[in-house]
Fold this protein.
Amino acid sequence: MRSRFLHFADAGSEFEDAEFVILGVPFDATSSFRSGSRLAPNAIREASYNFETYIKEFDVDLESVPIFDAGNMEEYGTVDEMVEDVTREVKKILEKGAIPVVLGGEHSVSPGVVKAYKDMGKDIGVMVIDAHLDFRDDYLGVRNSHACATRRMAEIVGVENVAVIGVRSMCKEEREDAKRMGLLYFTDEDLQERKFPEIVSEALAHLGKERIYLTIDADGLDPSIAPGVGNPEPFGLTGWHLRTLLKMLPGSMCGFDFVEVCPPVDNGNTSALAAKVIRQLMAGLHSNRDQG
Ligand code: MN
Ligand code: MN
């Protein structure tokens, strides 16, 4: 049961033929500061029409890539119901052998996606881009809050199979838990002091998996390039960091999401960035598949 919507640019395929399936999850009920990410899936879709169908980095024209846009999931009751629904929907995509591309919504969506891989017996590593550690056991009593996303994903796949890049905000307890449990994360100081390709290589080596799931919380990027987020944090990833990451990742990826874009406080650039990144990731993964 899905409402009418504008599909993502170049998503002209049917579900049966799709290599990529785009799924919007317009959920933002646990947002802790500025809500509005429920409007992001459609804002990102609109922004996707800004870009050329041809992706020069990978010599791929997205018009020739089978992409199906499944639209948005329905409104839900609680966050727990939403997470369960996301797992169920993403399992259908994985059962078909397609790559899920999930548009948040807030970060609470991502553990639901990761759970689907787990339920399907797929051994994955999770790479997280985020300003926040998201490692609280609960936030105001809500375990599936977006402030707990990385903690939940670490529970699903094992904390040793998670790496976070861009962290510059945490509470003391999260820091202690991350240390005690052995969560690998790279901070804004790492971004400043180290060569970024080394950070990405170290994260990938730590994960040590064929299949990498990438979850991009838009606030991991610097507010100068991604102003439209619910919880803006200065000193984030630049566009160049992101480009390096995109070049280094495709090939070992099994799916991704882009979450926490907040259109009511955006000037349009954050939705555009999300659409661009999604397009580049699909092109990169497709070109890698072509080459076997
Ligand atoms: Mn987050
Ligand atoms: Mn965040």
